Amino acid sequence: MDVRVGDVLTMKKQHPCGSNEMLVLRSGMDFRLRCVGCGREFMVPRSKIEKSIKRINRENER
Fold first, then answer.
1. What's the whole-model pTM score?
2. Could you give the CA distance from residue 10 to residue 39 in angstroms, rounded to a whole number?
3. pLDDT score at 30
4. Residue pair 11/53 in contact by the 8 Å Cβ criterion
5. CA distance 38 to 3
6. What is the pLDDT of residue 29?
7. DSSP string, 5-56
8. In what order do the strands lie in the sheet with 53-57?
């Protein structure tokens, strides 16, 4: 799956704050994500994130 820094991921499940959109800050074996709703940053393994992505939104894709 092609996920790049700066992409906004729409997830299948919501973050506890209620938002289901995450901004990608770092990608590799782990992802560093920031919740768009509350701003919390966290690291998640690639295998877990790839299962829970619903849609990838890119700024430069039109």
1. 0.87
2. 15
3. 95
4. yes
5. 22
6. 93
7. TT-EEEESS--TTS--EEEEEE-SSEEEEEETTT--EEEEEHHHHHHHEEEE
8. 41-45, 30-35, 21-26, 8-11, 53-57
What distance in Å separates the CA atoms of residue 38 and residue 21, rounded to the nearest whole number?
10
At position 61, the amino acid (one-letter code) is: E
pLDDT band at 61 (very low <50, low <70, confident <90, very high): low
What gap in Å lies between CA 60 and CA 42, rounded to an integer?
25
Its CATH class, for the domain covering 8-57, is mainly beta
Tokens 């894709």 belong to residue: 61
Using CA atoms, how far apart are residues 13 and 61, in angstroms rounded to an integer? 24
What pLDDT, in 10s, does the model give residues 12-48?
999 999 999 999 999 999 999 999 999 999 999 999 9
